[in-house]
Amino acid sequence: MNWRVAFLDEDHVLGVARDALPRAGPAAEARLRAFFAPEAFDHAALLACGSGLVLAPPEEAEVVLLRRATVDAVLFERCPRLRLVQRLGERRDHIDLGAAAARGVAVSCLPRPTLIRTAEHAILLMLALVKRLREAEGAVRQGTAAGAAGDVAYNWPGLGGLGGLHGLTLGIVGLGEVGALVARRASAFGMRVLCTARHPPPAPLLADLGAEWRGLEMLLAESDIVSLHVSNLPENRGAMGEAELRLMRPGALLVNTSRGALLDEAALVRALREGRLGGAGLDVHAAEPRPAGDLLCALPNVVLTPHIAGGSRLGVLEEIEKMFANIRAVMAGLPPLHGRVLP
């Protein structure tokens, strides 16, 4: 038996899920191999996971899959056969749960391990900067010893400026799912958390995150570390430019695990060279891979990683398998197995 599914918006993971449907064709396989490269994946196993699912327009679908689309009473009227709303992501924003319950439609908002790993990586970059991990590790490997030798020789390279996250103020620019995950982890380190976004979040969410709302200018002026988590939209290109960097407090740190296009890297180089900022940690870059002789690569107070914050791309397969397992469960008359939202 075939179950009809519709995709309500564009997202790279939903694109992989669409290409995993058995009737997607040879072009879909080429896209999948390009997406997972250089890692190998089992294409036959992925197709088996999607067996029985066929692409359909929303009006005919029994399941809709979405990332950011709105699911409201109008959509339920438009989709009378609907039995499952499957969102990729744990937040329930823009899903009318009351309308879903009234129509007996199951809802799943699936937490994403790849986003959790991205949040962890943002914290990793912060720790690497405040503890001067790059310089400390290099000093050990090079045999640098400025202090006394012995069985216990604390900080034998004589590194200065060592710190930690506890007590620092973190400014989160963009309070989507990753931004919220970073806020929770930062609070666990004893950081004061500020946040800003295009629209102020509900007060209960701020209270749950232990965060304070600020406008962008105030957030930049108050924060010891600024972490970027805004969406990859055309209007956000260059959102952190010369003017914004000059608003940051002297010696502050900047972390970007979102998108390279958000940051004016030439302005960042100037801020670091002039000593206005204390350092930067970047997992995403204006050009990937970075070219030889890159200016940021030459700066000692910059930590760079090669766009790996989300972990292995094979982790996406786990998310897709859980979505497809939910579809099968609901079609068998059971509740979703993963990320179920109770009425």
Question: Which key phrases capture this entry?
Answer:
343 residues; alpha/beta; Rossmann fold; 2 domains; 7-stranded parallel beta sheet; 5-stranded parallel beta sheet; 13 helices
Tell me the major beta sheet: 7 strands, parallel
Total helices: the number is 13
CATH class division of the largest domain? Alpha Beta
Strand order of the largest sheet: 8-7-6-9-10-11-12
Low-confidence stretches: none
Helix content: 25-40%
Give the CATH architecture of the largest domain.
3-Layer(aba) Sandwich
- Overall average residue pLDDT: 93
N-to-C terminal Cα separation, in Å?
A: 28 Å
CATH superfamily of the largest domain: NAD(P)-binding Rossmann-like Domain
Q: What count of domains describes the coordinates?
A: 2
Tell me the CATH topology of the largest domain. Rossmann fold
Q: Nearest-angstrom radius of gyration?
A: 23 Å
Label the overall shape.
elongated
Strand content: 15-25%
Structural class: alpha/beta
- Order of helical and strand elements: EHHHEEHEHEHHEHEHEHEHEHEEH
Total number of beta strands: 12
